[in-house]
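pasting for the record
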Amino acid sequence: MTLQGVTYQGPALETPEKLANLPSDLIEILWQVNGFVAYAGGLHVRGMTEEPEWHSLDRYWSGEMALHELYRDVQPYDAPFAQDFLGNQFLLRDRNVFRLRADTGEVRPLDLDLAHFLEACREDPVEFLSLQLLAEYHQSQGMLEPGQLIHTMPPLCVMESDAKVSMRAVPVDNAISFLAIRRQVQDLPKRRGSL
């Protein structure tokens, strides 16, 4: 597998028996490389490992950061195999890739299987993964480190098209937790009056 801008490769696969529960197309990728961060932080494909925690597929699938516990439209059987630099998640559901927009909770099919998803990333990562904002971050603040995502203020889902956005690098868990909690608060019933 040829990748551009690789900033991290997962450790060697030590527990191959854990692969048994994964979709076969994901097993094939993880046998080659146990996850990676590519496109200068633009795409992170998780691996089967306990350390580092931010790289652990198990942690975000069934562990303490299980995405189906944080987002109502993510199912327990959705394998959260990857994320982009903003914390948007890529899920494998019935051999198809779905995209979870982390700031809105919206889950949409990409109409691609895993092989075609990775091929689309390789062919035009800037356009397919919308890496324009990441390029701005690189120019103004430097490289994104493995284990970090970009936190934007205001969140992109509420930003006006001509507004300036503030960006900073934060640990993966902080970004995902913030976006998920923000999404859950928006889903709460609105109260009339004030306290």
